[in-house]
# Entry
Amino acid sequence: MLGTAYLEQGRRTAEVAVLYPKAERALRDSLKARPRGNADALCGLAALANARRDFPAALRWGEAARKAAPKRWTTYPQLIDAYTGMGDYKAALRALDALTALHSGPAVRGRAAGVYWDRGRREDAQAALADAAAGAVSPAEQAAWLERAGQLAWERGEREDALRHFQEAVRLDPDQRAAQAGQGRALAALGRTTEALSAYRVALERQPLPQYALELGELYESLGRARAARVQYDRLRTLVRQESAGGVDGQLTLGRFEADHGDPASAVRRLRAEWRRQPGVAVADALGWALHRAGNDEEALRFASIATDRVHGGAVYSAPYLHHLAVIERGSGKDGPARRHLQEALRINPYFSPLFGPAARAALAGLGEEPPPAELPG
# Structure
């Protein structure tokens, strides 16, 4: 219980350099005290590994917890996260089936929503999150599911709906920092930039996560405020270093950042290593984009295709992923597919990035209209 409490405190405060090692020590002490059948500690270690983005370790601990107590339903959400991080969406779906056979309720519906979204089932995901929020037993739990519902609405390009979800989440739980950052995202898309900047600053002050610093930096850059953007980019590097002291794998975040704002060759090296260790869809997208930025469109196209291949579990409804694929296709001389994928990206969420959304629209305009089909010979 102590280890799990340290883990949750670390998640909510982002003070992971201190709190995650404390969580690990407590959980390992629990295993030493009761080495057999201690599914609680094993599941706690799986949750800690997922929080650190160490999905191979999360999978090992999660499988050990399942073996110790096969009917303990709280193990299966950890397995779903681990399988997803490893890019094994079929296994994640099987774990969800096992979870729903053992338990029902808001937590299960919320986990189901994530799996449905990854499989391209957007309406099912949104319905599951609505059920989870309606069935929550505390304001904080309801706020957590509303934040996820806001994120899904945002990813569909529904700015106003996303903002309403994020605002309600913060009203219910003022410490819901992900929802505050979500407000920044939605407000920027609505053109309310002063409010957006304020929302991001509040989220970063109370929960300083590298992703929030990256988003705020890109918002500043889109507004032409290069110096303010550099401050946030420097902050991102500092936050990643601090998180790494707590065992958090920040290579995906750093790779994404370096590809767009730093050294693309460094991004490729980081993300290749990450792909070898845990080949999830997010890593495939980031590696493909880094390869493009480094000038290797041929290999980039292979990874971008993995990230958007619906048949094999790719996040086909992700506007940023489709934007990356389209730009890589354009660089490879594939103007037709590039045009279609840019159109799809902007149809899904035309506001997906204050910095790269306008670039996507400009690229689509540069490709012109779809040429008419060639006439068949008479």
In short: The chain has a mean pLDDT of 94. The domain at 270-368 is CATH 1.25.40.10 (Serine Threonine Protein Phosphatase 5, Tetratricopeptide repeat).
